[in-house]
Amino acid sequence: MMVSAFGALPARHDAMQFTGTAALDLVLYLTAALGLLLRFLGKGPALLREGRGFTVSAAMAAVFIHSVLLYGLMATPRGLDLGYFNAVALAGWLMACIGLAMFLKPAFENLGLVLYPLAGVSVLLAELFPHDVLLLQDRSWPLGMHIFTSMLAYSLLGVAALQACVLYLQERRLRHASAGGVLSALPPLTEMERFLFQLIGAGFVLLTLSLLTGLIFVKDFMAQHLAHKAVLSALAWLVFAVLLWGRWKFGWRGRLAIRWTLGGFAALVLAYFGSKLVLELILGRHW
Q1: What is the pLDDT of residues 46-86, one digit of tens each?
Q2: Cα 56 vs. chain centroid, distance in angstroms?
Q3: CA end-to-end span of the chain, whole Å?
Q4: Is 284 helix (H, G, I), strand (E, B) or coil?
Q5: pTM confidence score
Q6: Using CA atoms, how far apart are residues 164 and 143, in angstroms rounded to an integer?
Q7: Distances from the Cα of 140 to the Cαs of 145, 169, 213, 285, in angstroms?
Q8: What is the mean pLDDT of residues 164-171?
Q9: What SS3 state is found at 75?
Q10: Is 163 buried (19+), middle (13-18) or exposed (0-12) by CB count in 10 A?
Q11: How remote is the C-alpha of 97 from its chain's centroid?
Q12: Do residues 65 and 96 lie in contact, with contact meaning Cβ atoms separated by under 8 Å?
C-alpha cells in the first residue's frame, strides 16, 4: 500500500508493466538523441546520419509514450498527483516537447542531445519511485493555470540554461581561437545569443503569469509551506527581469548574459524542486 495525503492508496498491480514501458520510452529517447549525435558528427549509418525521419519518429514515439505514462501517474481517482518525481517527469515531458519543436528550427535541434535523455530518465524515475504524497482535489482554473505556467516556465528557462552552457563553450572556443571541432558546426554566436534571449523572454512571460496566478489561489503562504518557494521564484523573476532589461538597455551579451541566465535558473531549481525535495522526501510534508 502507498500512503498519500488522504490515506492509503492501493498499489498498482501492473507496476512492472509500466516500468518496462518507461524503460522502452528511455530507449526511444536515447535512440532519438543518438540520431541527433550521428547527424551532428556526420558519422554512422546513413539511415541516421543523412535523414531526419528516423530521429523525428523516435522522438515523437518517445514523447507519446511519455504522455500516456505521465497521465497514468498524475491522474488519480482522488485528485491530481503532483508529487516530487511526477513533477520531475512533467518537466521532462515539457522539455522533450520543446526539443521536438526544435525540429522546426533545425539549427537548434541538437539541444535534444541533452533534453531527450533527461526526459527518459525523468519518467523512469517516476515509475520506479511512486509515492503519491501530493493529491490536489482543487480543479479551479487559477490553480490549473498556475501549475501549467509554472512548469512550462521552468522548462523553457531550463532549455535556456542549457543553451547558455552551449553558448559558453562556443564563446570559450572563439576566445581561445580554437579552430575546428564539433562546436564549429553550431550556428553563429549572434544567432545563438538571439535564440537564448527568445527562450528567456518566453519563459519570463510565463513565470510572471505563474506568480500572478499563484497569488490568486494561495491563501496562506506560511501554512502551506510555500514562503521559501515564493521568495526564490520572485528572486528568479527579478534576475531574469534585470537580464532582459540589461539586454534591451545596454546590449548585455556573452559571459555576463550566461551568468545571469544560470543564476536565475539556479534560483528556479531551488524554488521548484529544491523545496519539494526537502518538504516531501525529507520532511514528509505536502500542500
Answers
A1: 666 666 888 999 999 999 999 999 999 888 877 788 888 99
A2: 19
A3: 21
A4: coil
A5: 0.87
A6: 31
A7: 9, 44, 11, 23
A8: 92
A9: strand
A10: buried
A11: 9
A12: no
